[in-house]
């Protein structure tokens, strides 16, 4: 990934810990970047937040020393990304790890498979 640019929202469930940190900066929650990195919060973990029980959510908030309002902001931003993915509003670009020669192929396949990549998100309340 180009470290000067925030991570691709379409691929948030494969974000690294560093990608999550960049995203936190973008959504004005950068004060939590270090504690998220210390706790290994990556995109897969963020994706699983929607299935957490109340006890797990409270444990996460305590572990990350989050204010309740900041947790709500985090959830709203995740929801915004998921909805944009489902509507096909996210720009598709070649991921940072893919060779440039695959850019055209990747974008075509990603656009074709976009709905299958986010089908689990439709089950959220």
UniProtKB/TrEMBL annotation:
| Location of the SAM domain | 15-57
Note the Pfam families from the entry.
Answer: SAM_1
InterPro entries named among the record's database cross-references: SAM, SAM/pointed_sf
Q: Which PANTHER family match?
A: STERILE ALPHA MOTIF (SAM) DOMAIN-CONTAINING PROTEIN (PTHR47626)
Q: What is this protein called?
A: SAM domain-containing protein
Native organism is: Kingdonia uniflora
């Amino acid at each position: 990934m180009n470290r000067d640019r925030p991570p691709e929202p379409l691929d948030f469930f494969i974000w690294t810990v560093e990608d999550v940190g960049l995203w936190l900066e973008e959504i004005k929650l950068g004060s939590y970047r270090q504690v998220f990195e210390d706790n290994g919060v990556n995109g897969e973990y963020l994706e699983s937040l929607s299935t957490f029980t109340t006890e797990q959510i409270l444990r996460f908030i305590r572990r990350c020393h989050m204010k309740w309002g900041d947790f709500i902001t985090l959830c709203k931003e995740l929801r915004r990304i998921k909805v944009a993915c489902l509507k096909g509003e996210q720009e598709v670009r070649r991921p940072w790890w893919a060779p440039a020669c695959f850019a055209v192929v990747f974008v075509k396949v990603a656009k074709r498979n976009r709905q299958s990549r986010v089908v689990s998100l439709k089950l959220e309340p």
